[in-house]
């Protein structure tokens, strides 16, 4: 270390003249030596060599024009100037760490990938404009959209955020219940004008577009006013049901919002809407602390609530 004769009385005065362009790489070396009491221990903490730590401390002493350490029998000790400089060095270290963390936080906040799952019908016809607006607002956040009629597990980390229309949530997740999602029985006016007048009291003569062996939909048909209408086909894709119904192929169960989007469809007379389901936005409990996910969930919920009428249907 240098043998500069500066005294403690000079300390506060020279601190005012610390050069703005000081070599900040020497600050960790100074703090490590102050904490550990030796060059070798400081080097181990920093992952360098004791010669490198010595050069950095000596460079700082030369820059400040003071001796920061003196050697004793049990190691290196701070001089009066070193003790004066220490709290300001600690403040500088804390400020640098705070700045580093802030930058990291901004990066996490404004960039990254979010996995989102939704059923294709909702995604194609209702979520697309919401996702487009979010992408424009946060250009560094990318959405990985998983479209499936099955429910991706949040607990098993199959997705980050899920938009679901369910009667109840049975996973250990957090979420927001937004509004009811009505479903009903729909067909074209032409089909109903042609087939209803000739139908029997339990739907004989009418045709269902079938979902296959899906128990919930089979129960829905049995409990409808048309339990004896013929079930044709086995098509698990609700969007295909939508297109077939619009083409006049028969009756099917769809979300109530389809009538506003496709006015050629109408709810079958004598049927009621089923409003047991609600629209939820769900996410894993741990992801509440991930800033980009919170940004997305907040935006998504606000946007869906603005479009409440589209989801509820009529």
Could you write a compact summary of the structure shown?
A hairpin with a 2-residue loop joins strand 1 (69-72) and strand 2. Helix content is 44%, strand content 19%.
What does this structure look like?
The structure is a single chain. The protein is α/β, with parallel strands linked by helices and 314 residues long. The protein contains twelve helices and twelve strands. It has helices at residues 11-15, 26-36, 39-46, 50-64, 80-110, 120-137, 189-195, 215-222, 238-246, 258-261, 291-306, 308-312; strands at residues 69-72, 75-78, 112-118, 141-147, 161-166, 174-180, 183-188, 207-209, 230-232, 252-255, 265-267, 278-283. Strands 4-3-5-12-6 form a five-stranded mixed beta sheet. Strand 8, helix 8 and strand 9 form a beta-alpha-beta unit. Helix 2 (26-36) packs across helix 5 (80-110), helix 3 crosses helix 4 (50-64) and helix 5 (80-110) packs parallel to helix 11 (291-306). It is rod-shaped. The termini are far apart. The model is unreliable at 2-20 and 101-107 (pLDDT under 50).
Question: What amount of the residues lies in strands?
Answer: 15-25%
Roughly what percent helix?
A: 40-55%
Tally the beta strands: 12
- Reading side by side through the largest sheet, how are the strands ordered? 4-3-5-12-6
Largest β-sheet summary: 5 strands, mixed
Radius of gyration: 34 Å
Question: What order do the helices and strands follow?
Answer: HHHHEEHEHEEEEHEHEHEHEEHH
Tell me the quaternary state: single chain
Span between N and C termini? Answer: 82 Å
- Structural class, by secondary structure, is alpha/beta
Query: Unreliable runs, pLDDT <50, ≥5 residues?
Result: 2-20, 101-107
Shape: rod-shaped
Overall mean pLDDT score?
Answer: 84
């Amino acid at each position: 270390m240098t043998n500069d004769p500066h005294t403690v009385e000079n300390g506060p005065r020279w601190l005012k003249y610390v050069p703005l362009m000081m070599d900040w790489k020497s600050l960790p070396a100074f703090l490590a030596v102050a904490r550990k009491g030796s060059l070798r221990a400081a080097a181990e903490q920093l992952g360098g060599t004791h010669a490198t730590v010595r050069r950095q401390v000596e460079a700082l002493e030369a820059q400040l024009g003071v001796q920061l350490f003196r050697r004793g029998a049990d190691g290196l000790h701070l001089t009066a100037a070193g003790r004066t400089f220490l709290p300001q060095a600690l403040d500088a270290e804390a400020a640098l760490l705070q700045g580093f963390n802030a930058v990291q936080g901004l990066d996490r906040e404004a960039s990254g990938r979010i996995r989102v799952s939704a059923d294709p019908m909702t995604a194609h016809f209702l979520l697309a404009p919401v996702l487009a607006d979010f992408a424009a607002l946060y250009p560094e956040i990318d959405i990985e959209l998983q479209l499936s009629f099955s429910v991706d597990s949040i607990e098993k980390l199959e997705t980050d955020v899920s938009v679901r229309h369910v009667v109840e949530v049975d996973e250990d997740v957090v979420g927001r219940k937004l509004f009811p999602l009505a479903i009903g029985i729909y067909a074209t006016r032409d089909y109903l004008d042609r087939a209803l007048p000739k139908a029997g009291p339990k739907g004989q003569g009418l045709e269902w577009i079938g979902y296959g062996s899906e128990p919930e939909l089979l129960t829905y048909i049995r409990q409808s006013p048309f339990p004896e209408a013929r079930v044709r086909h086995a098509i698990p894709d609700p969007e295909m049901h939508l297109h077939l119904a619009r083409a006049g192929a028969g009756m099917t169960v769809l979300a109530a919002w389809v009538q506003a989007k496709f006015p050629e469809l109408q709810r079958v007379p004598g049927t009621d809407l089923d409003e047991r389901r609600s629209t939820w936005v769900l996410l894993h409990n741990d992801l509440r602390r991930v800033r980009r996910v919170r940004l997305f969930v907040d935006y998504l919920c606000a946007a869906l609530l603005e479009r409440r009428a589209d989801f509820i249907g009529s």
